[in-house]
Amino acid sequence: MEKDLVEFIAKSLVDDPDSVIVNMIEGEKSTIIELKVADDDIGKVIGKHGRIAKAVRTILSASANKTGKRFVLEILD
């Protein structure tokens, strides 16, 4: 569910939605969500001063409260 959410948000923000790749790495207490976008779109996903990335992380933490797991968003370049 969280993977789909991150993928949807990222595809909505970028110019090249076909290049969006989201991977999940499951851990015991936390899950790492890796987000990879085209080089030209990395700024759109991060935003000025990291505001968009912070907003996505906030949404993930709200989702994590329901499941009791912790989600970590990593934006790969």
Comma- or semicolon-separated keywords:
single chain; 77 residues; alpha+beta; GMP Synthetase, Chain A, domain 3; 3-stranded mixed sheet; 3 strands; 26% strand; globular; cytoplasm; RNA binding; RNA-binding; cell wall biogenesis/degradation; KH_dom-like_a/b
- Ends distance: 24 Å
How many β-strand runs? 3
**How many independent structural domains?**
1
Structural class estimated from helices and strands: alpha+beta
Under CATH, the topology can be stated as: GMP Synthetase, Chain A, domain 3
- Provide the spatial order of strands within the biggest beta sheet: 1-2-3
What is the molecular shape? globular
- Per CATH, the class reads Alpha Beta
Uncertain segments are none
Strand portion: 25-35%
User: What share of the residues lie within helices?
Assistant: 40-55%
Q: Let me know the average pLDDT.
A: 92
The radius of gyration is 12 Å
CATH superfamily name?
K homology (KH) domain
Write the CATH architecture name: 2-Layer Sandwich
Number of helices: 3
How is the main sheet built?
3 strands, mixed
Q: Helices and strands, in N-to-C order?
A: HEEHHE
Structure characterization notes:
The chain contains three helices and three strands. It has 77 residues and is of the alpha+beta class. A hairpin with a 3-residue loop joins strand 1 (21-26) and strand 2 (30-36). The radius of gyration is 12 Å and the shape is globular.
